[in-house]
């Protein structure tokens, strides 16, 4: 009877090729790190079986005729079975929580004649932690029970005739683990089982780029409900948003949760996908708070990539208070149509705005007064004794009155239009000028 049942299990394993879609290695690559996959190993597994006549390693082939290794046991005729099968030592890496996926078939005891009371339909799963390989001995007392595994579906002799394999898949979790590695053990207590595959893995959140921040591979926490907080590192040419650093949480299922905070591209760079690219020549970005590179404003240029500002053309300037986004400008031309009116020692000057304001709207006017001699025509700046009404410089209006001039004196007045970049210019001043001679001073 035992040899017949063993042949039955061999037939079951041979049916694997007909159900390849079920047994395909379904790794969720985005979340799982495989520590052990018996189906992927083509050579003998060489796990430890105790007693030696219990679990048996057998070979099968998949649909591509690639060998796979499985274990079976079917000692259902004798009572009080205690057959152990132990894996080789498994290094856990950085994992604290381990998942064990077992795919197996199990024979329905009612379909086996003469085994009433001795046949079982469950097996037990154990584990044992250690910092190194413990050798070949199995000490049952060292192992901690994970669970008793029962089949959702068991097969009968009729299923074999129809070449139907009822494959069961069970996943169990162990942890938190603290030592460098562990063993898994399967205890048979009298069932007819074939272990088709055993897969051991842990979950982690794989490295991603989110909101211009790199979040590294992160192993999930030790508890099912735990969240591992991870702070991201900005990609090249990006920086953290002020008081809002990039963070994400790695869930127990190996999924990144909704990000908090972000990185932004530095000045001179703009976002393109998950990277920051340099602004092209002729474009600029003055601040990380700006989203996109902008074309250089009028009368300016950026000769290189990654510019945070645009340089003004020759003859054009940008005031210290001008933001990088405004056009470069130049000093205004001279005022137009300057006229005067003399009343003894008082002169009134009026003029029209300049034809060219230099591209600015902050034009004001300032007056230069010079007193000139009769003989040689030499001129010197007027002293502080004269007055300007309303003022000498910063005039918004196009007129001024000059008082307290000397009687019978020659004066030259220069009226200059200025704007925010006039003092930056290295070119000659542009002004309108008029020369006058005062008459006799008025009576006291």
UniProtKB/TrEMBL annotation:
Catalytic activity: L-tyrosyl-[protein] + ATP = O-phospho-L-tyrosyl-[protein] + ADP + H(+)
Predominant subcellular localization, coarse grouping: membrane
Keywords of the record: ATP-binding, Glycoprotein, Kinase, Membrane, Nucleotide-binding, Phosphoprotein, Receptor, Repeat, Signal, Transferase, Transmembrane, Transmembrane helix, Tyrosine-protein kinase
Residues annotated as domain Eph LBD: 32-210
Domain Fibronectin type-III: 331-441
EC number: 2.7.10.1
GO molecular function: ATP binding; transmembrane-ephrin receptor activity
Cited PROSITE patterns: EPH_LBD (PS51550), FN3 (PS50853), RECEPTOR_TYR_KIN_V_1 (PS00790), RECEPTOR_TYR_KIN_V_2 (PS00791)
Keyword Transmembrane among record annotations: yes
Location in the cell: Membrane
Lipid bilayer topology: Single-pass type I membrane protein
Domain of life: Eukaryota
Major enzyme class: transferase
Biological process, per Gene Ontology: axon guidance
Gene3D superfamilies documented for this protein: ephrin a2 ectodomain (2.60.40.1770), Galactose-binding domain-like (2.60.120.260), Immunoglobulins (2.60.40.10), Tumor Necrosis Factor Receptor, subunit A, domain 2 (2.10.50.10)
PANTHER family in the cross-refs: EPH RECEPTOR A5, EPHRIN TYPE-A RECEPTOR 7
Protein name: receptor protein-tyrosine kinase
Organism: Scyliorhinus torazame (Cloudy catshark)
